Structures are given as C-alpha cells and as structure tokens.
C-alpha cells in the first residue's frame, strides 16, 4: 500500500497543491482529500478503488495488475470489486486479465450474482470492441434464464447502440415468441415498440404495436 507523503518542493507547490505517492504518482488536492478522509474512516476499499483510477490514468499496467490481484483477494465477497477491476483492466488493454477477473467472479460469488456479473462484463467486452464475445455472453445468460427480460433489455440496448438493427429484431422476435408470464410479455412489447420508434419506420412501429394489442386481447389483461 503506497504511503501518502507531502510534496515539499516549492516549485511544485507553486504550480498546484499536490500529493505524491511513494511510487512517484502525483495526484491532485481534491483526490488527496478523498484519500485522507478514507484513511481516517478506515475505508481501504475506497482507497484501493481510487488507486485503480490513478493507475489507469497514468498507464501503469504492472502496478494495476498487482492491485487487482490484491483487491480480488481482500474483497472477494464484494460484488462490485469485479466490475471495477475488470473495467480498469479493459481500459489499459489488459483484456486477458479482465477476463480472468470475470472467471474469478463466477467461481467465487454466489450463483444468484452471476447474471449481473456476466451482463456487466458483456457490456465491457462490447465497449472494448469485442462484439461477438459480448453477444455470446448475453446469449449464454438468456439460454439459462430465458425469462430475464431485464437481461434482454440490456442486450437490445447494446445492439441498438451498435447499430445492429436486424439483430435487435431477432432478439425481440425470439423473446416475444416465448410463453412467458403476461406481465413480462407486456414489458417486452413495450420495449420493442420504444426501440422501433428509434430505429424503425412508422410501419414497423405499427406492426409491433398491433402484435402487442393482439397478444393483450388474447391474454385478456
């Protein structure tokens, strides 16, 4: 754990009030205050999370990997640590390390937390340019949990953002063709209509709206 030390160099002090870590990283006064408060309140997780940001900003890959390993040991039951560490690794191009973080999460966390982790890493993969891998992760989740409309919604949002119109419709077609509870079907159709209003024409919107009305009538809401 780096030690906080005041930078006593007058030239530096004249330029900006700063603080230097023992490994040579200089950070701003605003971040200094956050770290000092965390130390006073005994919040090591908060400090380590800030250090992740610092290593990303300064491009220190080796230090980041060491910190990630430390955090995964120290906070292995903290669900949020995996997303933080994975995102940091992706930002520095440490793709293999990021994927190791995801696998670690799956092996350590309870099964009920796996879906959230997989969705988070799918989005990280997409942001890193790994489109096919991101889609594969979403498909993996939906294959096991086909009724997770929240996952389908996140999947569709990702596809819309990427401009993959046909794939959006394939996913929505598949989801609305399932025998799901009426409440979930209503959510899916509402989502589809909202999406088509963004990516489709009026005919397409009307077609989905009509299909939704037919389902509602048949289900007798």
Automatic annotation (TrEMBL):
It is found in: Nucleus. Coiled coil: none annotated. The keyword Nucleus applies. InterPro entries: HAT, Rrp5, Suf, TPR-like_helical_dom_sf. GO terms for cellular component: small-subunit processome. It comes from the Eukaryota. SUPFAM superfamilies: TPR-like. GO terms for molecular function: RNA binding. Keywords: Nucleus, Repeat, rRNA processing. GO terms for biological process: rRNA processing. Signal peptide: none annotated. Residues 34-219 form the Suppressor of forked domain. This is Suppressor of forked domain-containing protein. It comes from Heliothis virescens (Tobacco budworm moth). The lineage of its organism: Eukaryota, Metazoa, Ecdysozoa, Arthropoda, Hexapoda.
